[in-house]
Amino acid sequence: MTGREPDGDGLRLLVEPATTTRWVRVLYAVCVLLVVAGEGLRFFSHAFDHVHYGFEAWPGFYGAFGFVVFVFIVYCGRWLRGVVSRPESYYRVDEPERSK
Amino acid sequence: MTTWLQSLPPGVIMAVGGLLLLALRGRALQFGLVVLPVVSYGHLLALPAEHVVQLTIMGLDLVPVRIDRLAMVWGHVFHWAAILSAVYALHVQDRVQHAAAIAYAGSAVAAVFAGDLVTLFVHWELTAVTSVFLIWSRDDRARKDRDPEECYRAGLRYLIIQVASGVVLLAGICLRWADGGGLEFEGLATGDITSAPLWAQLVFLAFGIKAAFPFLHNWLQDAYPRGTHTGTVFLSAFTTKMAIYALARGFAGTDLLVPLGVAMTLFPIFFAVIENDLRKVLAYSLNNQLGFMCVGIGIGTELALQGAAGHAFAHILYKALLFQSMGAVLWSVGTCKATELGGLFKRLPVTALCCMVAAASISAFPLTSGFVTKSMTLSAAAEGHMTLVWLLLLFASAGVLEHSGIKIPYFAFLAPTKKDWSAIERPPWNMRAAMVTTAVLCLGIGVFPGVLYRFLDFQIEYEPYTALHVVGQLQLLLFATAAFVWLVRIGAYPHEKRATILDFDWIYRRALPAGWDRVVRRSSVFWTRGGRLAENARQDGLVWIQRWVGDGAALTQTRTIRGIALWVLAALAVGLAWVFWLH
Do A25 and A49 share a domain, yes or no? Predict the structure, then answer.
């Protein structure tokens, strides 16, 4: 009853070492374009007239917020691992760790 | 005139019909599994848009059916989830699991359409009792991740906590009844819950247990990753969203829900970063999403409430899709541990693409369902001038991208690995059909949000596709993705490790049992001395009993019937005099 999926050669482009660097450059370029687009909205439309908070109108606010928050979360996670990580068998009653 | 079909509570066809599946096998079992939710949905659609059924049982005025706009949002999506999950589970030949799953879905639907608290309580408990079988059931395809003993224990903990939620709910109902209040399930409290009556606080607590409030949440991360590969798909849809509905129905505008919801959006993010079991990552992610809905309900404005309802609708679908894709990985590989996976995209491309659609949806990328629903809660917070809440929800939005948007698809399908997956079996057609359909729904809602808003009969105008919203959201998500790439390249992103991540359940799984062991051990000296005293007392007691009822004792000697009657008469007279004196 197994399925017949096509091989995922199309997706291979996402992870092949030769193409990943290209994808990363594309990602960085899109990020820059988004900041430019945000500034374009400021000058060519009234989009920023209706923001709820003034800081939303800062150039690249959402991008900077996303980048900083992501890095913060990952470093917090690394610290948290040191505090709450235990051997995989920690809760198993019949494991030696339990009896120590 | 109300026909018997109109009197039948929605969902009961599944709740009762599910039990009939126990008698079926083979094709008939598969047929019943899919037909029951379809028939149940047909029954719901045939009922009037505004409809109430009342009856009185033992002096209790009950409303087993109450159909209105709010309940219909959940009615629709619960049936969609039941049908898609049933198709996804078609290949499994396990009568008990299927019967439990369909009865569970039916109970959840019936709970949503309950118009009184007693009816709600009955279905509330039925969902607990039926759903536990999805954790206890055997799953030969997931042997590496599902140790039977661990699943049994996790199921027991799950059952105890779920039933306890019902007991607390019942206590609240009884207190309200004793205070002369009614049984209506509507607008139970609003504003400051701490100044609400005790019964309302108890009901709030009961709902909070199932909604996985902070410190009451661990049953979710404990039990859901131990469900069968199909069972967890059912589990992800119903219990917690039933609780969200109950909060929306009973506690809209309750202030405490805002900080509680914000906390729920935040703390799971950090645990999800370091969790190795991808289904557990999804359980943390589920907790995070429930937080957004709680905030919306707590804000309580029309926009916020519709945002919470719309978010619940979209969330049930994309979360089901995430669990479906991880279920497919579990079925094919036997594990969902990130350390054991990677590079599966080549062997399971359909599953990988569906997972990516779900990951984009939960991250709220434009053109997906998350973008057009979750943003309503943020807008409501901003319109309410809740700056800190708005910033923290924005923070949580970036966190969602980390664990569900990137971690799940990356570690399962894209991460470099030396493993050769060419020999693994691909998921059967029904699993892929369910995943593709759910993915199409996630994208369809994102592309045509107006259809969803009209379908759910939303009363306000909301336009998600403004230039600022699209550019701002893309900036947030793509810069966060760039941060991920940068962290991976510099080697700062934490490697996955096989580990147990301690959470608050450590209190009742290790600290309290260990503390109790210590108390018992330290008091053993006391018990040894006390035991001697107790033995002496026992022997003295035996001598005393022998004196009164032993051979030849006063109470065991044969008496005349007249004498016994006199004694009984005297005892009755004393009893009557005592009762008379009391009154």
Answer: yes
Q: Which of B325, B345, B475 to mutate to test the interface with A (most CBs of A within 10 A)?
A: B475
Residue A52, domain member (yes or no): yes
> A41 and A68 share a domain?
no
Chain A residues with beta carbon closer than 8 angstroms to that of B411? none
Sequence-separated (6 or more) residues with CB below 8 Å from residue A73:
B269, B270, B273, B398, B399, B402
Is there a single domain that holds both residue A50 and residue A66?
A: no
Q: Are residues A69 and A99 in the same domain?
A: yes
- The domain ranges of chain B are 1-244, 256-513
> B180: which 2 tokens?
């002369």
Range with the lowest mean pLDDT among B73-82, B277-286, B416-425, B529-538? Answer: B529-538
Distance spanning both ends of chain A, measured CA to CA? 47
Does residue A38 fall inside a structural domain? yes
Structural domain includes residue A4: no
Q: How many cross-chain Cβ pairs, A to B, lie less than 8 Å apart?
A: 199
My answer on whether A16 and A53 are in the same domain is yes
Nearest CA in chain A to B502: A84
Query: What is the rounded CA–CA span in Å between residue B458 and residue B196?
Result: 30
> Within this chain, do residues A34 and A44 fall inside the same structural domain, yes or no?
yes
In order of B102, B120, B423, the CA distances from B134 in angstroms are 11, 22, 29
Radius of gyration of chain A (CA): 23
Domain range holding A75?
60-100
> The whole model's pTM is what?
0.87
Q: Do A62 and B487 count as a contact with CB atoms less than 8 A apart?
A: no
Query: Residue A47 contacts by C-beta under 8 Å, 6 or more apart in sequence?
Result: A41, B466, B467, B468
Other beta carbons within 10 angstroms of residue B567's beta carbon come to 11
pLDDT > 80? residue B161 = yes
* β-pair partners for B67: B51
Percent of chain B with pLDDT over 70: 95
**A30 and A51 both lie in a single domain:** yes
Query: Do A85 and A74 have their domain in common?
Result: yes
B483 touching chain A per CB within 8 A: yes
Contact B479 A31 (CB under 8 A): yes
Token code pair at residue A32:
């820059």
* Contact call for A85 and B498, based on CB within 8 A: no
pLDDT exceeds cutoff 70 at B231: yes
Helices (H), B425-550: 429-447, 449-455, 467-489, 506, 512-522, 524-549
Distance CA B37, CA A55 (A): 49
Write the ipTM: 0.84
Establish if A15 belongs to a structural domain: yes
Are A14 and B350 in contact (CB < 8 Å)?
no
The structural domain count of chain A equals: 2
What residues contact residue B2 under an 8 Å CB cut-off, 6+ apart?
B53
For A87, the closest of B475, B478, B500 (CB atoms) is B500
Could you tell me if B416 lies within 8 Å of chain A, comparing CB atoms? yes
Number of Cβ atoms within 10 Å of the Cβ of A53: 13
For residue A6, is pLDDT > 70? no
Tell if the CB–CB gap between B475 and A34 is shorter than 8 Å: yes
> pLDDT tens, B107-155?
999 999 999 999 999 999 999 999 999 999 988 888 788 888 889 999 9
**Other C-beta atoms within 10 Å of B204: how many?**
25
B22 contacts: CB under 8 Å, gap ≥ 6: B95, B96, B99
